[in-house]
Amino acid sequence: MKYLDPIDPGRRGVLAALLAGGAALAWAGLYWARPRRAHAVGGRAFEVEHSEAEWRARLGPQRYAVLREQATEPPFSSPLDHEQRAGIYACAGCALPLFSSATKFDSGTGWPSFWQPLPNAVAESTDASLGMQRTEVHCRRCGGHLGHVFDDGPPPTGLRYCMNGLALEFTPR
Questions:
Q1: d(CA 97, CA 22)
Q2: Pairing between strand 113-114 and 134-139?
Q3: Which end of the chain is more exposed for a tag (fewer CB within 10 A), N or C?
């Protein structure tokens, strides 16, 4: 008895394309997931504050999504991931210096990574989005979402501050 394929070869290609497209959209959705933080972290006040309309106008849509709505840019999309010059990485929302190039390393994750922030530059909070618990890193002056910190980094701290390139501005020395 011969097996009859219920999907003819012409429809099989269309089905494969639809499945691939759906997978790509799901992947993009994970990286651009937006928990939609309506206000600053924990409702606390920050030194630099603007209305949501002012933030949108100052930052543009992509930076606004990352800094104000906790979105994550796709991996390997930031030119800052490959930046090798000496300099300072500052908050794209308020220009507070956050990281020195002396603490930057290639984590292979596709995002700019550092083993230590500058003193009094960042604050941390618990992020329970995407079904897991992580430590969110945000600018201590404006509350902008920068990324997350993990405990799989290099010495001397053992930490990996995995930052969104859109949340940072680089100034070479």
A1: 40
A2: unpaired
A3: N
Nearest CA among 108, 110, 117, 102 for reference residue 159: 117
Single pTM value for the model? 0.76
* Residue 98 · residue 90 · CB < 8 Å: yes
Q: C-alpha angle 136/154/115, rounded to 5°? A: 45
Q: Which residues are catalytic?
A: 162
Total Cβ atoms within 10 A of residue 46: 18
**DSSP-derived 3-state class of residue 62:** helix
Residue for token pair 């300072």 = 88
Residue pair 89/112 in contact by the 8 Å Cβ criterion: yes
Distances (CA, A) of 87 to 97, 144, 169: 10, 21, 10
- Residue range 115-128, pLDDT digits in tens: 999 999 999 998 88
Q: Tell me the residue type at 163.
A: M
The model's pLDDT over 132-145, given as tens digits with 9 standing for 90+, comes to: 899 999 999 999 99
**Number of Cα atoms under 13 Å in the Cβ half of residue 173:** 10
What is the side-by-side order of every strand in the sheet holding 87-91? 97-100, 87-91, 168-172
Yes or no: say if 162 and 109 are a contact pair by the CB < 8 Å rule: yes
Please report the pLDDT score of residue 132 as a whole number: 85
pLDDT value of position 17 = 55
